[in-house]
Amino acid sequence: MGKLSPSDIVHGKITRISKSGNGILDYGTGEISLGPILEEAVGTEVDAVVYDENHAFCLTGAVRTEYYDNAMRAQTRQLIDSPPDECPGIGDTVEVEIGSINSAGHGYASYLGIPIRVKNVPQGTQIGQIISVKVLRIEPSRLVATGTAVSLRGRLPEVGESFRAPISHKTHSGNGIIESFIGHQINVGPVRDEVLGDHVEAVLLDDQFAYCLSTNATIDGYRNIWEPKVTEIALDRSKELQQQLGRNDKPERSTSGRIVRPVQRRNSSFSKRVHRAYDHTCAVCGQRWKDDSGYFEVEAAHIYPVSGVSEEDPLEGGPDSVQNGMSLCRTHHWAFDHGWFTINDDYTISVKDDPSLEGYEAMAPYEGQQLYLPDDQSLWPARHYITFHRDHVWTG
Ligand SMILES: [Zn+2]
């Protein structure tokens, strides 16, 4: 068998996971690494696109880890580092011919030879039809775009604000999902089958959930099913709010006199999952303080910042996965975000060697120390996010 070439599609079985967590695909006459895939996927048959002789991008979504896309974009840098001259950028609108449409309403197209996955092909589009699509993401081996007939807004509405957007698809359990906001899938609860693609009115509860106001779109009993969920979310939010206020985060006062917390629209369960994984302990100093009302002092830090590192950051920021997080006390969170220390591949700490920094004495003793990590090793910080922090955030 000849050597594999970039963009060849290979098919085979995942035989094992390497020590560094990458799935190994046996494609019959050789092996190739697929990047970070789920452990339970060993034995599964998958397709992958080759991007160099040792690495391929897995096309079978079900076996990829939560952070697969970002990891692969960070590692492969294909398309990203050397996009063809005519490659459209994020936010560009191009006209493409739809080659196929799957049952979920997503399509495939190509633009000057670059494969494009088109999310939310506008309803009624025929195979072979030319439509406008807007580029959302550049992945190692393809572009991801959306049909522009779908109202696309870069930003989420405010929490509590109502908005109109189309139902893009339904989950197995029958909940409607809105995909109009880049980077978010908003779950509006159980909706009728007929409303797929229809615009509905909803109120945003957080970055994952909304309450649907269009009663003709929701199933009978929607209120009974979805309201308890809404309450649960509201309670979580109020707990978080109290926690923030308790830490004198200087809440802003709105004109109506209501206290609102500083704008922070993160995945509310991220901090919970990180805190639980680390048992509320600072990964650097091991501190585990609790106030009188039972709130722990630690914070959930992102390793690869969610906001990205600059306007031009092609990776759009890191995900809200526990593997991209660490629980840290306030001081160490601040020091980590400001690049005063970083994490090595063996999970030891490197401190910026600059005795002129005020506070250096407080940080220096941690040089070479091992992090306090979760018992469950699968929740440890993922190598690629640590590398990212070292390369882009650490100032040492
Ligand atoms: Zn600490």
Can you describe this structure?
This protein has helices at 68-76, 222-246, 268-277, 330-337, 360-363, 383-392; strands at 9-17, 22-26, 31-36, 45-52, 55-58, 93-101, 107-111, 114-119, 130-138, 143-147, 162-166, 169-170, 175-178, 186-190, 199-204, 210-212, 252-253, 259-260, 299-302, 325-328, 341-343, 349-351. The chain is α+β, with helices and mostly antiparallel strands and 396 residues long. It folds into four domains: 9-65, OB fold (Dihydrolipoamide Acetyltransferase, E2P); 93-147, OB fold (Dihydrolipoamide Acetyltransferase, E2P); 162-219, Beta Barrel (OB fold (Dihydrolipoamide Acetyltransferase, E2P)), CATH 2.40.50; 268-392, no CATH class. The protein contains six helices and 22 strands. Mean pLDDT is 77; it is low at 77-81, 149-153 and 247-266. Strand 13 and strand 14 form a beta hairpin. Strands 3-2-1-4-5 form a five-stranded antiparallel sheet. The protein has a five-stranded mixed beta barrel with strand order 6-7-8-10-9. The chain is 17% helix and 28% strand. The chain is globular, with a radius of gyration of 23 Å. Residues 282, 284-285, 287, 328-329, 331-332 line the site of zinc ion (ZN). This is HNH nuclease domain-containing protein. InterPro entries: HNH_nuc (IPR003615). Residues 282-344 form the HNH nuclease domain. Pfam families: HNH_2.
